[in-house]
Automatic annotation (TrEMBL):
It is found in: Cytoplasm. InterPro entries: DapB_C, DapB_N, DapB_N_CS, DHDPR_bac, NAD(P)-bd_dom_sf. It comes from the Bacteria. Residues 3-124 form the Dihydrodipicolinate reductase N-terminal domain. The keyword Cytoplasm applies. Gene3D superfamilies: Dihydrodipicolinate Reductase, domain 2 (3.30.360.10), NAD(P)-binding Rossmann-like Domain (3.40.50.720). It is an enzyme of class 1 (oxidoreductase). It catalyses: (S)-2,3,4,5-tetrahydrodipicolinate + NAD(+) + H2O = (2S,4S)-4-hydroxy-2,3,4,5-tetrahydrodipicolinate + NADH + H(+); (S)-2,3,4,5-tetrahydrodipicolinate + NADP(+) + H2O = (2S,4S)-4-hydroxy-2,3,4,5-tetrahydrodipicolinate + NADPH + H(+). Its main location: cytoplasm. CDD domains: DHDPR_N. The keyword Phosphoprotein does not apply. It comes from Thermospira aquatica. This is 4-hydroxy-tetrahydrodipicolinate reductase. GO terms for biological process: diaminopimelate biosynthetic process; lysine biosynthetic process via diaminopimelate.
Length: 262
């Protein structure tokens, strides 16, 4: 049995993670961390998530997480440094799905990985990570004579753009095309599209969970690889799978590809 603590437990992903944990016979909820300003502190985390009493209250005290095996964090960039410090201090495995992280945050993850097992991924969906592999394969074949564009769409509340998944897809394409020529959106008289340029476009609106499309546009033909998520549960299930993978592992940086066998 893997005991999991959720950081940012009252947020949209936090509640979904609690729902998934409550359905998994190999896991149990052991902690639910929130900021000291959260109006729901003291309430049962399961009740807040809509799955009934779990016997774990929302708390702003990190000590309430000390008995857990793994921490899962999908909270925010602003809370990240505090959370990685907590995970390192308690020597707990740390699964991170927060996007919008900067270079200094990844350095903090590298530092933490010296004392705890750490796994960060821009997307925990099995389908998205398979998509990344398919895009890599396609780019190797279509590296000449095809223009490539990334379009991602998310809900109106998402704070970062482009999405972490789009950034991952971009990294794969830049490597395949051997280019740093990237344009984020287009406006005005842009002129003829340069050979080898990669376009990245972000759509924000409504309650879109997450759509990603990579288009390879040739002369007389177009190949599109698309993934659409219809529920946050997809990401939560992947994160819980990662938490079970990380439990008991030695300290180092792990990848979602290792978890999924890709």
């Amino acid at each position: 049995m893997v005991t999991i603590a959720i950081m940012g437990a009252a947020g949209r992903m936090g509640r979904t993670l609690i729902q998934v944990i409550s359905q998994d016979p190999q896991c149990r909820l052991g902690g639910a961390l929130e900021s000291s300003q959260c109006a729901l502190l003291g309430q049962d985390a399961g009740v807040v998530a809509g799955v009934g009493t779990q016997g774990v209250s929302l708390s702003s005290d990190p000590d309430d997480l000390s008995a857990c095996d793994v921490f899962i964090d999908f909270s925010s960039v602003e809370a990240f440094e505090h959370h990685v410090e907590i995970a390192s201090r308690f020597k707990k495995a740390y699964v991170v799905g927060t996007t919008g992280l900067r270079e200094e945050h990844f350095k903090a993850l590298d530092e933490a990985s010296k004392v705890i097992p750490v796994l960060w991924a821009p997307n925990f969906s099995v389908g998205v990570n398979l998509m990344v592999k398919l895009v890599q394969m396609a780019a190797e074949v279509l590296s000449s004579g095809f223009d490539v564009e990334i379009v991602e769409a998310h809900h109106r509340l998402k704070k970062d753009a482009p999405s972490g998944t789009a950034v991952k897809l971009l990294e794969v394409l830049k490597e395949a095309y051997k280019t740093e020529d990237v344009i984020y959106g287009r406006s005005g008289i842009t002129g003829e599209r340069p050979q080898g340029q990669i376009g990245v476009h972000a759509v924000r609106g409504g309650d879109i969970v997450g759509d990603h499309t990579v288009s390879f546009c040739g002369i007389g033909e177009r190949i599109e690889i698309t993934h659409r998520a219809s529920s946050r549960e997809t990401f939560a299930r992947g994160a819980v799978r990662a938490a079970k993978f990380l439990a008991g592992k030695p300290a180092k940086r792990y990848t979602i590809e290792e978890v999924l066998g890709l």
